[in-house]
Amino acid sequence: MTIDRTIAPEFKAINDIKLIKPEQLTLNNGLQVFCFNSGGQELLRLEWIFGNLRFNPEKPLLNQAVSTLITEGTETLTAAQIADRIDFYGAFLQAEYGFDTSQLTLFSLNKHLSSTLPVVKDVLTNAIFPQKEVDTYVRNQQQKLQVSLRKNDVVARRLFNKALHGNTLYGFSPEAEDYQKLQREDMLGHYHEMFRPSNCTLIISGKIEKEALDLIIEMFGENWQLDSNPADISQPEVVAATEHFYYKEKPGALQSAIRIGLPAVNRTHPDFSALQVLNTVLGGYFGSRLMANIREDKGYTYGIGSGISSFKHTGTWFIASEVGADVCRAAIAEVEKEIGLLKTELIPEDELNLVRNYMLGSLLGSLENVFSHADKFKNLYFSGLGYEYYDNYMQTVKTVTAEQLKDLANKYLDSDRFYKVIAGKY
Amino acid sequence: MVNFNRFTLDNGLRVIVHEDNTTPMAVVNILYDVGARDENPEQTGFAHLFEHLMFGGSVNIPVYDEPLQRVGGENNAFTSNDITNYYITLPSANIETAFWLESDRMLNLAFSEKSLEVQRNVVIEEFKQRYLNQPYGDVWLKLRPLVYKTHPYRWATIGEKKEHIADAKIEDVKAFFKKHYNPQNAIMVVGGDVTTEQVKQLAEKWFGQIPAGEKYHRELPQEPEQLEERRATVTGKVPLNDVYIAFQMCGRTDEGYYAAELISDILSRGNSSRLYRSLVKEKQLFSEIHAYITGSLDKGMFVVEGKPLENVTIEAAEAAIWEELERISTELVPADELTKVQNKTESTMVFAEMALLEKAMNLAFFELLGDAGQLNNETKKYLAVTAEEIQRQAKAIFRKNNSSTLVYLAEKPEPEFA
């Protein structure tokens, strides 16, 4: 059998993407629980997600420090005992800080849930932030900060975030002094206001058996105290800086980190899905225009990409790369050229169709297991959106026209609004 | 438990099929049995550079990525000192596109001068980004030649130096392809929403006609036993001192491997681990400390790495590490602690079964080791390790005469104003 290898096999468009929707429970104490049940492996992921408290510029590290140090000791368990208990049962307990929410995540085999859950309960209700652990955190974070500040991409990101988001959780990057200012009393106060059932969403995914769910409801419903005052999770207004250009010179740099971008809309805006298409064309996948031009044609960089970050109170469109120090200006000129082309020329139908298929395939591929379905839900839920968002998204990806994308490029990619940050040599 | 079927084409291509109908996706993972260890010492970094060139078009298909993206697929690849691994994820309805693309580049590449020129630049930028323009980025370029004197593990996958990449010629690229990229040196795993029958038919159709090529017979100089303590000190533009102690250890297929990996878990996995608890939390000597193994197919490395706090001398830091290494070599690990790391390994294996691509990569890797089926015996092997074996391995590894210490000293920088 001879085959003609120059002809690509037939392919099918992706039409139907099914998302698993959760079952919702509201417990008596106000806790919202969402369950994604699947067969398969005997394991669970539980995520307790809390809204961050209002940013206080005088005590800017509190959300971050409290969310990170919550596992470092309770009234009954030391940090070491918490770690021992979790590790012994082959479980994983992660405390993570995010811009809008922070969360505690437990990965556990079902068979060990009755041993691992009480530890989480203790952490969520009785954390004490021992002074010794706070001191260790401060010392180690200060050391790690010194290393981070030697990385050009980190320096560029910090400057960029500050310029676009000012004095907010999104704009803040800690300095060594900020760690010094951490007070245990402040942390305790912050903890008690933030980590309460009415400010919590619990998302369970995996193989949810009845005994497990009963145990969870008993422990985090009936036995988690009802609170009176709601947590203040409002946030100060995001105000971007008037200065649009930042250059941090790093003598001897072999590469320069560049970050170029501007304020954008977030997921709740009707244009967001179409902007995702436009962004994908520009720098959102391996075959994007930025990669094709600046890596694959010019060889200026190992990688370049763009993305739109959707936060609760703002959005940001950014392009990031690390480029050879000697070609920094040339690379920026090419980035600007590519942005300009989106505003002046229609995206060829062939390229647009490729991007449509790529994006739908990518969405389908991102639904690898039940955890990924829960992640999709989080995107919606914390933006105050419903599943119609994904229906609209798929519809937009399939049907948005080159004319509409050109109009959007002109509407959103206003040259005067761009911020440009370079760390390295320019 | 990861189920699979296995067959071999007449040209020697080994194919493994993992049916998983819980997903609408499919993965195609092709492992080529070639890594940086197979390079000429004068042309290091070649296996990795070559991986980049595999995306520069093949004999009948001018560009690789575009047709894949057009059918909703994504792909990537990595090169290690031992293997080069390529993978595609795409909607299963379009699986044939993956066969078309992968078979054409196994058949022959386009060998374009333009592609070579650009990818040389891209890889040199990668070299800068990951190894030269990062604090401590060049550690592996310095540590490997300290641990290995003979074996090609003495250079990193990126290459010994940028010049080796800059000098690569198209003839070298062609010769490398001929030597390593053929059905006999490859293992293909197809996983996801597919059937074995379908994969057999597609494999036959697209790969069946590719000439078998020559089997590459590996004859690498093996690293002799280390007989003396080794040490190097470098000073660089880094903010903090950093200490690396590397030991030679057995290869991936050696019986002792499982105990060695559990030792690294006892020392450094999670917040209950010994080094973290003792040296970061209790004695407060380090801001961070890690222990890990390279898992290499030939003689590997067991590495302990930590950044001492600013008021701690290098001598004190090293002594504290050695104290923990002595302890695990002389005292039997308590039953609870051993059970803990074994439980962790067991649950990690269960979690890994939720990731299709990871399963496919693991099957390919274990087939390379000799039998894909051994993937399902891994957990058992970790659970069978005894406290005595842990002690025996620790004793064998943690000897001064088997150590290579690299001290990375912070050069006090010019004051910098923000």
UniProtKB/TrEMBL annotation, chain A:
User: Mind listing the GO molecular function terms for this protein?
Assistant: metal ion binding
Gene3D superfamilies with a match to the protein in the record:
Metalloenzyme, LuxS/M16 peptidase-like (3.30.830.10)
Q: Which InterPro entries does the UniProt entry name for this protein? A: Metalloenz_LuxS/M16, MPP/UQCRC_Complex, Peptidase_M16_C
Q: Which Pfam families match?
A: Peptidase_M16_C (PF05193)
Domain (Peptidase M16 C-terminal): residue spans on this chain = 181-357
Superkingdom per UniProt: Bacteria
Kindly provide the name given to this protein in its UniProt entry: Insulinase family protein
The species this protein belongs to is Mucilaginibacter limnophilus
The organism's taxonomy opens as: Bacteria, Pseudomonadati, Bacteroidota, Sphingobacteriia, Sphingobacteriales
UniProtKB/TrEMBL annotation, chain B:
Which superkingdom?
A: Bacteria
Could you tell me what this protein is called?
Insulinase family protein
Residue span(s) of domain Peptidase M16 N-terminal: 15-129
Gene Ontology BP, a term: proteolysis
Sorted alphabetically, the keyword list is: Hydrolase, Metalloprotease, Protease, Zinc
GO molecular function list: metal ion binding; metallopeptidase activity
- Keyword Transferase belongs to the record: no
Q: Which residues form the signal peptide?
A: none
Similarity comment: family membership: Belongs to the peptidase M16 family.
**Organism source for this protein?**
Mucilaginibacter limnophilus
Residues of the Peptidase M16 C-terminal domain: 170-344
Q: Name one Pfam family in it.
A: Peptidase_M16_C
